[in-house]
DNA sequence: GACGATAGGTGTACGTCGTACACTTGTCAA
DNA sequence: TTGACAAGTGTACGACGTACACCTATCGTC
């Protein structure tokens, strides 16, 4: 069995210990630090030792995601489906902010793990319990997409609208080359208290997005919308 | 200069030729086929030759994305902002369906290229020209996120709601373990004419998503919504 | 026509990666 | 005591990105 050189007893590896160490390493050193070799080092073990607990790197990454998804608050029996979903998603969001690498890993995943399916299932059941039709819920889940995991839909963390850290020359160039972006970037003084690097209040933007969707869904539900209603020749599907 | 062994004259490489070959290779062999070595092979050249035209692999990938984004239809002078944005996004979507690997590349990108900024800018200007306030446009762009590039927001191509290719045992297990998913998956017979692997009408789901957002935005605009209106203690931000 | 600069293609080499495979070693049931 | 089994080790291979030194064809200048 593995023992530390300094005489201390090293507890044996386990799948769980491997996954937790990997999550911790990714949290502090970023996703690019996750290699079987580097991870094994942090566990004081030889690279191949990991393969006794994890089939390959892909399974390692899947397991890391399961750990992260497991941190999302469980559903609570909530009378109002909108508030319930909203709280759940915002809880997911705080988890994903703790593990910023998780998004890229999930996006590269070939298929959802059972843990992910279970989370998705519980969100769906919240909608159904709120009285939404299965048909409507289907479309809503597609429309929400990865937002249910608390992911912003931005592609680039440093938003193109970020006016931060621009030299006057760069700013002038932006103004000339991308007048729309410039106009929008200048449009609002941001709340200095809850700001991320981009200079935007990310929390506000996120809530704006999910509220836009959830309010729209509520309106569809109220008017008894059904996907078979719509005329496929219409410009809009709603 | 490089010449083909068979006596035929080989036209010299160029950044453009490299990028186009890379896009073609990714289209037919997938993103994992994109390595400097394999790409150089398809160009009949030694790996290091590519570095005379592209600084490194990251720049190669950026360039590939620029090629793809360049395929999106330019904006047309459209009186109705909603229809204009809708058409533009749907055009982007058909481009991205041709290059399914583009999404992952863009998501891994550190920063937007000028080409991406130019496209983003033109979408913003469409909104502004339609009379939306810069403030509203700001939030809308965040809310739309990567949807403006025509990306579905799904994490996994094979949606968890896909009932296809399940053995009866698997189906029974799904029903028991994930009743919500099962209920939603069973809820609607899909249009067999425009179906992707998932068994869902992806085109419909995509349009449902953007229409949900654009309709919501139109409503906010009509009632003169302003981000400074809302009370930050409210449950909803709208 | 000669010639040096330069752009474009080559060859070799290094460090990193995931992981196959054969091995030792510690533990425990019989 | 044994011997099966789970856990950790060591070596090795092929793929990757790319640094660096090297050729070589082309062309403007004299």
From TrEMBL, chains A, B:
Keywords: DNA-binding, Transcription, Transcription regulation. It comes from the Bacteria. Residues 35-54 bind DNA. The keyword 4Fe-4S does not apply. InterPro entries: Homeodomain-like_sf, HTH-type_TetR-like_transc_reg, HTH_TetR, Repressor_TetR_C, Tet_transcr_reg_TetR-rel_C_sf. Pfam families: TetR_C_1, TetR_N. Gene3D superfamilies: Homeodomain-like, Tetracycline Repressor, domain 2. Residues 12-72 form the HTH tetR-type domain. This is TetR/AcrR family transcriptional regulator C-terminal domain-containing protein.
